[in-house]
Structures are given as structure tokens and as C-alpha cells.
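new request in #modeling-help
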Amino acid sequence: MRIPRGLRPLAESLAAVFLGFMAGGVLVWAFGHSPLAVYRALLVGAFGSREDLLETLAFATPLLLTALTFAVGVRAGLFNIGAEGQVYLGAVGAAFVAGSLPLPPGVHLLMATLAGMTAGALWALVPAVLKAWRGVHEVISTIMCNWIALYLSMYLAIHFLAEPGRAERTIPALPTARYPVLSEESTLTAVLFVAVGFALLVYAVLWGTRMGYELRLAGENPDAARYAGVRPERVVVLSLAIGGTAAGLAGASQVIGRPPAWSLYATLGNVATLGFDGIGVALVGRNHPLGAVLAAILFGALTQGGRLMEYEVGVLSELVRALNGIVVFAMAVPELWNLVRGRLIR
Amino acid sequence: MRGRRWLGWAAGVLLAAAVVPLLGRVGLSPVSLLETGLLAMTPLALAAVGECLNEKAGLVNIGLEAIFLITATAGVWFAELGRSGYVGLLGGMMAGALLGLGLGAVSVYGRADQIIAGIGLNVFALGFVPFLLISLWAFPGVHVFPNELMVPRLRTPIGQVSPVTLGAVAAAVLAHLLLHRTVLGFRIRAAGERPEAVDVAGLRVDRLRLLTATVGGALAGLGGAFLPLSWFGALVKEISAGRGFIALACVVFAGLEPLMALGAALLFGLADGFASAVAVTPGVKERVPFYFVSMIPYALTLAVVAAVIGRRRFPSTVGRPYVRK
């Protein structure tokens, strides 16, 4: 079986996703559930009706953004797994402006969105600076920053932003700072367009500007980049800042772009794990902004379908995250693809 | 570089010496601090020592966090099955060895990107462990097991010490001797530095690397099972709380030397013990928000890695698959 060169990345992604589903099937079967029932519930839950489809897109929106965080890092040769913490602080930043600063309509929404993006970017600068000037490996620094961000965000949410009488969440965003809901049947808001627009912008920057070219060159061939005069510190700071902005927007999208709470929970329950889930989305999307859009819809569907799976089959929706991990694992192994192809040819 | 490291150690010791009397003034007992510190040191030291061996042979395992999570769960399951905490520790160790072997095989034979494979394992554990908790015990997020399954602690002059802690110290010493005093250790180091020379000498690079990956996984697995069975007395879905990454920081800090890794683990363990002690001390806990106390181990890891380590040389082939030409 021959696959045209251009379609190979797509085929590899599909193979990895397929493998993830197979392994997930074995997993639920091992604990006495029917894989068929599980996957049927996933499919129906994600695409069964118009409202399910819209809800799938609502789940895909933040995943697309956190996938961009990881993807831009990998393009620059970095493993930024700090989207998680950047999402938390983005949500705090957006919650602060949206909930406690009365501003005129339009301006308020814009400022709240920018506050989330800025907070995410600033938090990403910590590992960026440590990497650029001290050589601290970003995998360790971003993970430590994630934990610090967790406690910092909980502290800020509870001590400064809590709604009086309801300590479990922050003050809800004022109506002037809320993205319009697109359809009464789902939680999808216009923030979806902002996310897709941001992905297109990242695409344009990476493939259309000198800055983006330098970033990609540094990721693909650091030696050549150094010869060409690309400063590695600049690449590190730039890629992490873009990633942090995307993650911050993801956090903001859950506060000012997601009914019904329009606020950040003190447990961070409505933003937690978005950052980690984005890693799988990025890899399946081949670290490409446009691929990330498609992959985000796939994983958004898994999350939305997972809710029906939990309800109908009684399998915890966290299984979806395990599937995500298996897919990431499969994407790491180039020989796997050769193995599969070898079998197909014989 | 060497001078810097000693400077770091000296600063750490001075800091500890200054902190102890201060603790006395607010009513913290140094003995209980040391007890908690040693408990917190144990999983870090076990995983870090194993990872030192693994990285010396040329592989990187950033999935330690996942191994902690999975083996903590497996450890409790085996303990309940065998009605003994020791069986649980052994079970966790076996599960860890299997995970380490699996990751090693994927790295060696699948030529995987080891960082991405490790991230995959971590993401997998994040979803798999809650799924496992509810599949095994039908209760989400937390499982409290019978108290008699706890591995008893030994009474010593410096407080109660878990036998696993002694095992961690022994593992560090043995790993040091293995690496620097035996032929096998020489070969392991060569597999990381000059795999082609090892190959030409007629030795199997793949087997050496699989061996260290398995041993590293087993040690991390013992550390994972230790968390519920000899320390917390219960299993929660986020039981490892970033310790797998702190262990990696210990490895970097130690420059891949097992004895240094033990020291680094003790330093981080004491910081962790300090945080837990502050969080429950009357008079202090009201004034310092719990959230900031909880940050201490992570902030310290970040600060130490940034201040003391900087750039450090690793075996020339670390993280890169060996391809026979």
C-alpha cells in the first residue's frame, strides 16, 4: 500500500489515534465493560445531535489554544509543558478584569481577553528567562511553574476575587465582558472565532514572517540557526511568550466565554487539565496550527462524548485522558509507523 | 562547576542550621521535621538514584511522575491482595520495573522521542489512575485502605524511620559502587558516552540500556508504593503531586551521581517536611497562607535548579537512540 508523501502525516496521526482507541478498548474490556458500548456512547455523545456538535466545538476551543502552546514550543525546539499553569493565570487575569473593573461594553470584553492573554504570557516568561539565561531545562521549570501557579491562582481566586457568600468561585464576569452565546442549546460562544483567529495568526507569524522563520529554523536545525545569526535567547522568549498568550486566552475563554458560571472555580475545576490535554492535540495535529484545529475537534468530541459514556456505560470520563496519553505515546515512536507499514506491504 | 556545587551545598547547610533554631521558637520540633523530611526524601531518592543509572546509560525517563502514580495504586492493590504492606511494596516495584522496561524498549527498539514518550506516559497516568481507582474500588479520587497494611516504621534515636528509607540510602550507595567500582558499571557509563565503542567491543548496548531502564523503573516503583503504604496511609488520585519531576530535578542537580542525588533528595525532602510542618503549626498556620506554604518545594526546586546548576554536561548520547551503523 502506497501513501502519497503529503498524506503521510495525516495517516500517521490517524494510525496513532486508532492505536489509542484499540488500547483504550482493551483497557475498558479488562475491567468488564463493553468497548463497543463505550465507543458508541462516545460517538453519539459527541455528534448525535446539533447541540452535542456545538458542545463538542465548545470543548475544542480551549484545547486548540493549549495545543498551540505546545506546538509553537516544539517548532522552536522546546517542550513547553507549562500550558497548564499559564491557563490558570490567564483565567485569573480575565476573571479579575471581567468581574471587578466596570468598563464600557466592547472595551470591557477586549480588556478582559487581553488581561487573560497577558497573564498567561507573563507566567510563561519565568521558564523562558530561566532557560535563556540559566540553561534550566524547560520541562522541569514549566512543571514547577504549573504547581506554583496552581496554589497562586487558588490563593488569588479565594482571597481577592471570591464572590461574597460564595467562596467556591470568583465574582462572575459582568455582562459587558461576556462573549455572546451562539446558540441557546449549548455553551458555545463567539470566543470560538477568537481562538480560530488566533490559530490563523500564529500560522501567519510562523510561516510568513522573518521572526517565525527564525523560530522554526532554531527548532529544526539549531546549528544552522546559530550560523545564520539567530539568537537562541530571542527564540526561547518569543516561542514561550506566544505559547503563554495562547494558554492565557484558553484560560480566559473558560471564564468569559463559557456559560453558565462565567467565573473561575476556586478549585480551578473548570480550567484544570486543559494544558495537559493540549499536548496530545498538538501532536496529533503535527504541531501545525491548522492541524491543531482538526485535532482539537477530535479531542473536543472525546471530551463531550465522554460525558455520555460516563452516564450511560458508567466508565469514568477520565478514560478519555488516558486515551490521549496513549495517542501521545504512539506519536513518539517513529518505528511504529514503519512496523505498521511493513505489515501492510507483506 | 565543581566549586559552584560545593557553594550550593554550603549555602544549603547554613540555611538549614539557621532555620532549626527559628523553628524551635515557633514551636516546631526538629525531630518531627527530620522525620517528615526523611519520609519525603525516600521516594525522591529512590526515583532519582534509578534515573541516574538510566541516564548514565543514555536514556531519559521523564515519566517518573506517571510511574509514581501508577505504582502507588498498584502497591495498594497488591497490599490488599497479599494482606501485607511488604507485598504491596514488592508489587509496586514490579509494576515500576515493567513500566520502565516498556518505556526502555520503546526508546531502544522504537527509537522513540524519549521526552514525548515520557510526556505521553504522564498524560496517560493522569487519566488512567482515576479510572483505575473507580474500577478497582468503585470510589472516585480517594481510597483508604486498612491501617494494618501500613509498613511499620522503625524506632531510632532520630525518630521513626521507614525501612524503605534505609533501602533508599542503600540503593544510593550500591548504585555508586556499581557505577564506579564494577565492570558492569563501567559498561553502563560507556553505553551512555560511547555506545559505538561498546558495540564494537561485542557488548549489547540495547541490553545494557534495557537493564538500567528496568532497574530505574523498579526503584521509582518502590518509591511510588512507598507513598501510600509507608507515608500517607491513603491513596489519592494526585498522590505524587509533582514529585516525579522534583526527582528529575535531583538528578540534574546531582550531575547523575547517585550519592549526590541522595543528598539533593534530602534537601528537597526537608523543604517538603518544613512545608508540611508549617502548615499544621498553631501560631504559624494562621499567619502564613496555606497556599504559599504548599508552594515551597516547587519554588525551592526552581530556585535551586536556576541558581546552582545552570548548564551541565550530560552523557553525550543521553536521550538519543543508538542506531547501529
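bot summary: Residues 144 and 168 of chain A are 25 Å apart (CA to CA).
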